[in-house]
UniProtKB/TrEMBL annotation, chain A:
GO molecular function ontology, one term from the record: copper ion binding
Membrane-traversing stretches: 9-30
Native source species: Haloferax marisrubri
Protein name according to UniProt: Cytochrome C oxidase subunit II
Residue stretches making up the Cytochrome oxidase subunit II copper A binding domain: 65-170
Keyword Transmembrane carried by entry: yes
Taxonomic classification: Archaea, Methanobacteriati, Methanobacteriota, Stenosarchaea group, Halobacteria
Keyword Membrane in annotation: yes
Keywords assigned by UniProt, alphabetized: Copper, Membrane, Metal-binding, Transmembrane, Transmembrane helix
Family annotation (Gene3D superfamilies): Cupredoxins - blue copper proteins
Pfam families xref list: COX2
Subcellular compartments: Cell envelope
From TrEMBL, chain B:
Keywords annotated in UniProt: Electron transport, Heme, Iron, Membrane, Metal-binding, Respiratory chain, Transmembrane, Transmembrane helix, Transport
Subcellular location: Membrane
Record's bilayer topology term: Multi-pass membrane protein
UniProt xrefs under InterPro entries: Ba3-like_Oxidase_I (IPR033943), Cyt_c_oxase-like_su1_dom (IPR023616), Cyt_c_oxase-like_su1_sf (IPR036927), Cyt_C_Oxase_1 (IPR000883), Cyt_c_Oxase_su1_BS (IPR023615)
A single BP term in Gene Ontology: aerobic respiration
Segments traversing the membrane: 23-44, 64-86, 98-124, 144-166, 187-210, 230-252, 264-284, 304-325, 346-366, 386-406, 418-438, 474-494, 526-549, 569-588
Name of the protein in its database record: Cytochrome C oxidase subunit I
Any one of the GO CC terms: membrane
Ranges where the Cytochrome oxidase subunit I profile domain occurs: 25-497
Protein family per UniProt: Belongs to the heme-copper respiratory oxidase family.
Highest taxon, organism lineage: Archaea
GO terms assigned for molecular function: cytochrome-c oxidase activity; heme binding
Length: 179, 589
């Protein structure tokens, strides 16, 4: 087959570009350690989410020093927590999110960051992020989920550690009182 | 490549085929008009420039926009182009005009049903709606006739492919030793890719969504139907693109004043699309839970290699156009650009579409980059990207190509070249405004598919310019694009109403510089390439699908067992599909 010399050169450059792209992405995954959302979050039964030990009363819980788990339920058209109550996390902490959906497919995006995942009924999206400085972030649903999709939003408040600790203790105490 | 003999125009030589092409184009252009009007409403609504509808109805409009433009306009136009290309390049009419009308009829009926279901969303008391957008992710549910219409439409496209394969088989009996004509080769490889990829959406719609919307089954596994959608949802991108590529390879060089650079490389490009279009769909699901990272990595690698045929196309098309310019007396390293026929709307439209596809290709590389995709997933960046690809590379090429193709099937001269030229330039300028602003808005985190991306809890921030400026650009761009479609439809309507001419357009297509003779015959072995494509699909999808079914609560979600009737239906369809596949294989081999 006759291939022109310029065409061969172009083909070689195209392959170098492609391999280069794959290389940088592989570095991002292996070297820089950017994990993909995957199947490690496991599954839940969306029909009985209310009785689930974690998603039944979603929120934040401490799992180690400066380390927390956050459970979030997305449902038409709120995040629990996040919409009626802001989601509170301490500054300087490592937070592992577990996000699921109760009714239809939703999206979970922390505005201006790369914290972004699909929330699919039956599946749990698990990912870990660092919150460095105190401040506020918006969160929104970025997958169409019904006629009120555009009002589905919330807030994350990153608090000073001490402030967070007193709020967290108060929450724990309330929880025990209710039980 | 077979060439139309001088003096005999397509419409005179193949009147039945010309009628099919005209009918396909008519439905395509009506859909284009409605879809573009919906697009205008959206561009003005979400930027808060003008809100004539309730925000809840925005999603009805958006569903109509997506379905009418991305499915009906593009695919009906494809059917017209392919029907023309098969008759032209094989130099023979279709085997049965009745059969051709059957698939046009089936696809049209499907379109009408789905459209009625979508428009029903505007009438609250009707109890019929399909506000599920182009992707119809369950558990959002549409009225059953939406899914039924969709299924009929897909089956119609299968029959159209069968029509072209039958023509090819008849031609092959008369020409046992000839190479497959290039345009026919392009049509057949594209259709094989389409058969493989539509299997996913057919299974999703027929086994899960239709029974579920009729209440026969209680639930579906949302991740499974979503994965089956994307199994089809990425190859459809190439189903949009291949008719544009067919025009870029076989028509654009001629319009530029020259001829195609290389026939064999064109074949290689179409084969690469056949092989790689389907085992990449998971790259739309990089942020889906329930799919292991390894499968995403495989999809990413395949996606990157899918850049190759498009990069090769860039070379061949630019080289062919440059050859044309030099034939017209163009000189110098870049000065030859000035020698091109820029006053011809068919040429200029396709050239601008190709230039914009390069930009769309680069933003697509970002989408394909598994980890960088976190930044832009489901933001306005994504529609910014695909308005460059399907919305310009494809749509603008189709509109520009119409200025050359429509006169061939109507036998009338183009009504106005200057209006045509204004139209394609207006599209380009409108898209520059709208698409760059959408990309930048996406980087600021503004979501796609949202009626009112203005929130209570936070403001979006953009490093350059302002959010206000981005909104103005989107509204302005959307308005220009809509006006461009109005000009296009006006020009085509008046063309079709014009007086018949003996020579409506110069339809002669010259032979390529390097013909197929020098290339290995194995390129034409469609059965072998189909087999390899199928193996790649099995490798990319078996394990992810098994995982989704096993871990995600079974075939129907919620851990329900598979009812006996459904499993019997499964067997029936598997047998039908296998035998249909064997028949296709028999024709190909």
């Amino acid at each position: 087959m006759e291939i022109h010399a310029y065409e061969k050169l172009w083909l070689a450059l195209a392959l170098v570009l492609i391999v280069g792209f794959i290389g940088t992405i592989t570095y991002g995954a292996a070297g820089a350690g950017i994990d993909m959302i995957d199947d490690k979050g496991g599954t839940v039964d969306p029909a009985t989410l209310d009785q689930h030990p974690k998603f039944g009363d979603p929120g934040i819980e401490q799992n180690g020093e400066n380390s927390y788990d956050v459970y979030v339920v997305a449902r038409q058209f709120v995040f629990e927590p996040g919409t009626t109550e802001p989601l509170r996390v301490p500054a300087g902490s490592t937070v592992t999110f577990h996000v699921t959906a109760a009714d239809v497919i939703h999206g979970f995006e922390v505005v201006g960051t790369n914290a972004n995942t699909m929330a699919i009924p039956g599946q749990v999206a698990e990912f870990t992020v660092q919150f460095e400085e105190p401040g506020e972030y918006g969160m929104l649903c970025n997958e169409y989920c019904g006629s009120g999709h555009h009002v589905m939003e919330g807030k994350i408040v990153v608090m000073e550690q001490e402030e967070f600790d007193s709020w967290y203790e108060q929450q724990q105490a309330q929880g025990e009182a209710e039980n | 490549m077979a060439t139309a003999s001088g003096g005999s125009e397509f419409v005179d030589k193949f009147p039945d085929e010309a009628a099919i092409v005209k009918a396909s184009f008519l439905i395509a252009f009506v859909s284009l008009g409605i879809g573009a009007f919906f697009g205008l409403i959206q561009a003005l609504h979400r930027t808060d420039v003008l809100r004539v509808i309730d925000s809840a109805d925005y999603y009805t409009v958006l569903t109509g926009h997506g379905v009418l433009l991305a499915i009906v306009f593009t695919i009906f136009f494809l059917c017209g182009v392919f029907h023309w290309a098969i008759a032209r390049s094989l130099d023979r009419p279709a085997e049965s005009a009745l059969f051709s009308w059957a698939w046009v009829g089936l696809m049209t009926t499907g379109t009408v049903l789905a459209t009625v279901a979508i428009l029903g969303g505007f009438v609250p008391n009707l109890g019929m709606s399909a506000d599920v957008l182009f992707t119809f992710y369950a558990p959002l549910q549409a009225h059953p006739i939406f899914y039924i219409g969709l299924a009929m439409f897909i089956v119609g496209t299968w029959l159209s492919g069968a029509d072209w394969f039958l023509s090819y088989r008849a031609w092959r009996q008369d020409h046992p030793d000839e190479r497959i004509p290039l345009q026919t080769f392009m049509v057949l490889t594209t259709m094989i890719m389409w058969y493989i990829s539509t299997l996913g959406v057919a299974v999703s719609v027929v086994f899960f969504l239709i029974p579920w919307s009729l209440g026969l089954i209680e639930s579906v596994n949302p991740l499974l139907t979503r994965t089956l959608f994307w199994y089809f949802g990425h190859p459809i991108v190439y189903f949009w693109l291949m008719p544009a590529y067919l025009l870029w390879y076989t028509v654009l060089p001629k319009l530029a004043g020259g001829r195609l650079f290389s026939d064999p490389l064109a074949r290689v490009v179409f084969l690469l699309f056949l092989l790689l279009s389907t085992p990449v769909g998971i790259h739309h699901q990089y942020l889906d839970p329930g799919i292991a990272e390894g499968f995403k990595f495989i999809a990413m690698t395949n996606t990157m290699f899918l850049l190759l045929p498009s990069l090769l196309t860039a070379f061949t098309v630019v080289a062919s156009v440059e050859h044309g310019a030099r034939q017209r007396g163009g000189k110098g390293y870049l000065r030859w650009l000035g020698a091109l026929p820029w006053r011809d709307p068919a040429f200029t439209g396709m050239a601008l579409a190709g230039a914009m596809f390069a930009a769309g290709g680069f933003s697509g590389m970002i989408n394909a980059g598994m980890n960088i995709n976190y930044l832009i997933h489901n933001t306005l960046w994504v529609p910014g990207h695909f308005h460059l690809t399907v919305g310009t590379a494809v749509a603008l090429t189709m509109m520009a190509g119409s200025y050359w193709l429509v006169p061939q099937v109507t036998g009338t001269k183009l009504y106005s070249r200057p209006i045509g030229l204004l139209q394609v330039i207006m599209w380009f300028v409108g898209m520059v405004f709208m698409s760059n602003a959408m990309h930048r808005a996406g980087l600021a985190g503004i979501p796609r598919r949202t009626a009112e991306p203005q929130y209570q809890n936070f403001e979006f921030l953009t490093p350059i310019g302002s959010i206000f400026e981005l909104r103005v650009q989107i509204a302005l761009g959307g308005t220009l694009l809509f006006l461009s479609v109005v000009l296009f439809l006006f020009n085509i309507l008046l063309t079709s109403l014009g007086e018949e001419s003996d020579r409506p357009v110069d339809s002669y297509l010259p032979e390529p510089l390097s013909g197929p003779e020098g290339s290995p015959r194995i390129l034409d072995n469609l059965a072998m390439w189909t087999g390899i494509a199928a193996v790649l699909v099995v490798l990319a999808y078996t394990l992810p699908l098994a995982g989704i079914i096993q871990n995600g609560g079974g075939l129907f979600g919620g851990g329900l067992p598979v009812p006996a009737t459904v499993s019997a239906g499964f067997d029936l369809v598997m047998t039908t599909v296998t035998s249909a596949f064997n028949t296709l294989w028999g024709v190909v081999a």
